[in-house]
Structures are given as structure tokens and as C-alpha cells.
């Protein structure tokens, strides 16, 4: 578009002409964007028809050479994977032959296996697939044949090892080539949650932060990551729980969740969150479901109130399980949220999303969340439990004008007709009170 200064007049100076031209350009861009979004690659503008030109595909001669150790796949350069190498003769990635392996991406050759004994596999991705390894119960100086069976009083549970583990405490095995500590002639076989102490010849409970799920073992397994157990004597990795929780929240959208969610929460936790929304915004909470053991005499409690003071305004408090969702607005501008658990029973806990919205829409939000029809049908309840739909719903509840950004087809695919009808009537009445 060309701006002509001679178009300026007393009624519209040069700046005015420039602004009008900018508006025409923006209008053309919006029209083009809408056409492309609708897969319509033609449009009309200022009485002239235009068609979007398609760029010609690049010919084979235009394909760039791949880097070292890469081959072409669907026209793109891709590094040769594990168990393969790039063959210059064949100009492609090929499998490592039997007797070799490759455990690194993008290589030009394969590594020879330490031993040529035993049936190796084609395309071996690591040395353990080479074949010729010492089996469990045996060892050698390099983990490959020839091998020696573990002597009496020792064992080896894995293949390809260079030593055998001693039973300890003067314990012996019944035969050579033993596979596990259970083959050691211990004076007692320990139950899960315990390990055998070779010095005292007694079973000891696994300490907190560890577990043992098998009988007759002489060790406990450390919990993964930042997890730990509630007590000692754990028998399963599922008893390792994440303890992290709490924090300061203040964004437009977010959620609070019990520690270790969706696994059972730990005992004796005390989590505190604070939601401090931006200026002139209020808080909306949705509790899709919450699982707290009812037989625990309210030992595990979730409470939301204005501040840490027990006498401050309380918005929500529960110590029970509720599988029906509920939505509500905070009775205070800020929220102090606490979750406490005792040493008793545990449960799945909760994941509670929240959103902040412009306080000018307080009347509309209250009108929606207090309407019993929002929770009346199972279809409506499922919406409040669906994370994707909750996000879309929050977009409308937090910014009601965004309701009109969704096409009728999108709305029909996402929500049942009864739900759309409920929202449309309330949002339209609020935004267009005089129509």
C-alpha cells in the first residue's frame, strides 16, 4: 500500500491519512488471517480478488547434505540411532552386525564386543546384548566368558558381572553358583519391610526413606527422587511419598494439590498456601473431588479462610470425601489455605484449580456458581472434573467477554447443550442487559 501525501486535506492531514491507511492494512491482514484459518486460500479486498500462491516444493538437487553420522528420513536429516552406524557406501544408517554394538547416536562405525563367544544379536544397542556374558551366579575379570561360578558363601544375581557378593557374617551357601542372598544359609528369613543384619543375624526394619518388597533380603532400597516414607518398615515403592507442598500463589490461574497427588498423601504434613490476586480481582475455586478418610475423626483437614487467624472469615472447610464437584467464590479478597494430616489413615487427597477474575463481574460469577443447574446433571459434573474443559470454562468465567471468541461448533463439541444454554443466558443477560 502506498501513501500519497496529496490525499491530505483540511479535513484530514498527513497523520490522518497515514492512520486511515494503517487501518486499511490491518483490515486486510485480518481478512487474510481469517481466510487461511478457514482453509480458504482466496479473498476479496477493495473490490479485487486475490489467491494465495503456493510455494513450489524443493527438488532433490536442493536437499542439503546431512552432517556426519546422519541419514535422510522423510527428507530430513536424522542421527543414526542406537545399534546402528552410518555407512558411507550405502549412504544410509545400517544395523551393527553380530559381534558388535553401538550405544551412542550418530556414529560412523560399531564397537567390537569384548567376547565373540555366544550368539550375539544384529543391531546390539549396548555391550550387554553382545552375547558371551557370564550368566547370573558366575563372574569373570571382564564379565564375559570364560566364567567361574560364585564360590561357596557368595552369590551374584545379575549377568555380565566381574565379582560375586559375600554372604557376610560367616554364612555359607548350599552350593556354588548361587543367585541371591536367599541362597545364603541365614538363621532367619526376613519378611518384606525388613533386611537381614549379618553381624547380629537378626531381621531389622527398613529405616524411613527406604523399602523392601521381597522376602529374605539383606538390604533395603532407597526411595526415588525427593520422596520418603511415613514410617520405617515400608514394603513397597508406593509408600514413598513426595512431601513438598505449600507456597505463595497470585497468578490469574493455578491450582493447589495435596502432596504426592495423585498418590496417597503423607502423614503429619502441614501445608500452607496463600493466594494474593492482582488488584481489583477476586478468587474463584472449583473442588472437582476430594478424598479424605471419613473414619479418621477429622484428623485430616483442608481449610480456606482470609488469614491464619482461626476467627477470620472462612470460605471452605472439610475433613471428608466428596466426589461431587462444587464451585464457589472466596468470601475474602485474599485466601489462606491449610492442609493438615495426622498419623492415621491416608487418601488420594485433592487437586483444586482456582482462577482470579475482574471484580466487576462478581455478580455474574456468583449467579453462575450458585445456580443448582450447574451441578444438576452428571454431564455438568464431568465438565467440572475435566482439566481441559475447566481451563476453557475458567477462560469464560474469568473473562466473560471471551465467551464470544468460541465458535458455535467448538462449544457444541466441548460442552453439552444444556450447559451452553445455561451459560449463554447468564452471560448474555449480564453483558447485554438492555437487549
Question: Can you characterise this structure?
Answer:
With 435 residues, this protein is of the alpha+beta class. The chain is built from seven helices and 28 strands. It has helices at residues 14-37, 362-369, 373-376, 378-385, 387-398, 408-414, 417-431, and strands at 42-45, 48-51, 70-73, 76-79, 84-87, 92-95, 100-101, 111-112, 138-139, 148-149, 154-155, 165-166, 194-197, 202-205, 210-211, 221-222, 227-228, 241-242, 247-249, 253-257, 270-275, 281-287, 290-291, 301-305, 314-318, 326-329, 335-340, 349-358. The strands form eleven sheets. The protein has a five-stranded mixed beta sheet, with no helix packed on it. Strands 20, 22, 23, 26 and 28 form a five-stranded antiparallel beta sheet that branches. The relative contact order is 0.06. The mean pLDDT is 87.
Give the helix/strand layout.
Layout lengths: L13 H24 L4 E4 L2 E4 L18 E4 L2 E4 L4 E4 L4 E4 L4 E2 L9 E2 L25 E2 L8 E2 L4 E2 L9 E2 L27 E4 L4 E4 L4 E2 L9 E2 L4 E2 L12 E2 L4 E3 L3 E5 L12 E6 L5 E7 L2 E2 L9 E5 L8 E5 L7 E4 L5 E6 L8 E10 L3 H8 L3 H4 L1 H8 L1 H12 L9 H7 L2 H15 L4
Parallel strand pairs: 19-21
Antiparallel strand pairs: 1-2, 3-4, 5-6, 7-8, 9-10, 11-12, 13-14, 15-16, 17-18, 20-28, 21-27, 22-26, 22-28, 23-28, 24-25, 24-27
Amino acid at each position: 500500500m502506498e501513501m500519497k501525501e496529496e490525499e491530505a486535506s483540511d479535513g484530514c492531514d498527513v497523520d490522518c491519512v497515514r492512520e486511515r491507511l494503517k487501518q486499511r492494512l490491518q483490515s486486510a491482514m485480518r481478512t487474510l488471517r481469517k481466510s487461511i484459518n478457514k482453509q480458504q486460500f482466496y479473498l476479496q479486498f477493495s473490490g479485487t480478488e486475490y489467491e494465495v500462491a503456493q510455494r513450489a516444493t524443493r527438488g532433490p538437487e536442493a536437499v542439503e547434505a546431512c552432517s556426519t553420522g546422519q541419514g535422510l528420513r522423510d527428507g530430513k536429516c536424522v542421527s543414526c540411532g542406537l545399534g546402528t552406524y552410518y555407512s558411507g557406501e550405502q549412504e544410509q544408517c545400517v544395523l551393527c552386525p553380530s559381534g558388535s554394538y553401538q550405544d551412542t547416536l550418530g556414529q560412523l562405525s560399531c564397537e567390537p564386543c569384548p567376547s565373540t563367544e555366544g550368539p550375539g544379536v544384529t543391531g546390539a544397542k549396548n555391550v550387554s546384548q553382545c552375547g558371551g556374558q557370564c550368566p547370573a551366579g558366575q563372574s569373570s575379570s571382564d564379565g564375559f566368558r570364560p566364567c567361574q561360578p560364585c564360590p561357596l558363601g557368595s552369590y551374584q544375581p545379575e549377568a555380565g558381572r566381574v565379582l560375586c557378593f559375600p554372604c557376610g557374617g560367616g554364612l555359607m551357601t548350599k552350593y556354588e553358583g548361587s543367585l541371591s542372598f536367599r541362597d545364603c544359609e541365614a538363621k532367619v528369613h526376613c519378611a518384606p519391610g525388613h533386611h537381614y543384619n549379618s553381624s547380629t543375624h537378626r531381621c531389622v526394619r527398613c529405616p524411613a526413606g527406604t523399602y523392601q518388597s521381597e522376602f529374605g533380603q539383606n538390604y533395603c532400597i532407597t526411595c526415588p527422587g525427593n520422596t520418603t516414607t511415613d514410617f520405617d518398615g515400608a514394603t513397597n515403592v508406593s509408600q514413598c511419598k513426595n512431601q513438598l507442598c505449600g507456597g505463595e500463589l497470585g497468578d490469574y490461574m493455578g491450582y493447589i494439590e495435596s502432596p504426592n497427588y495423585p498418590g496417597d498423601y503423607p502423614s503429619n504434613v502441614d501445608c500452607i498456601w496463600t493466594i494474593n490476586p492482582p488488584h481489583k480481582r477476586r478468587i474463584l475455586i472449583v473442588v472437582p473431588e476430594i478424598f479424605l478418610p471419613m473414619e479418621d475423626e477429622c484428623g485430616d483437614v483442608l481449610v480456606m479462610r482470609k488469614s491464619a487467624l482461626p476467627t477470620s472469615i472462612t470460605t471452605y472447610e472439610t475433613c471428608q470425601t466428596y466426589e461431587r464437584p462444587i464451585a464457589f467464590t472466596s468470601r475474602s479478597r485474599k485466601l489462606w489455605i491449610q492442609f493438615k494430616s495426622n498419623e492415621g489413615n491416608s487418601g488420594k487427597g485433592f487437586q483444586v484449580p482456582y482462577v482470579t477474575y475482574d471484580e466487576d463481574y462478581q455478580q455474574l460469577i456468583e449467579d453462575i456458581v450458585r445456580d443448582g443447574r450447574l451441578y444438576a446433571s452428571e454431564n455438568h459434573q464431568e465438565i467440572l472434573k475435566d482439566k481441559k474443559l475447566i481451563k476453557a470454562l475458567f477462560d469464560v468465567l474469568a473473562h466473560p467477554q471471551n465467551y464470544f471468541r468460541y465458535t458455535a461448533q467448538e462449544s457444541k463439541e466441548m460442552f453439552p447443550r444444556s450447559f451452553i444454554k445455561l451459560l449463554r443466558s447468564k452471560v448474555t443477560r449480564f453483558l447485554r442487559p438492555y437487549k
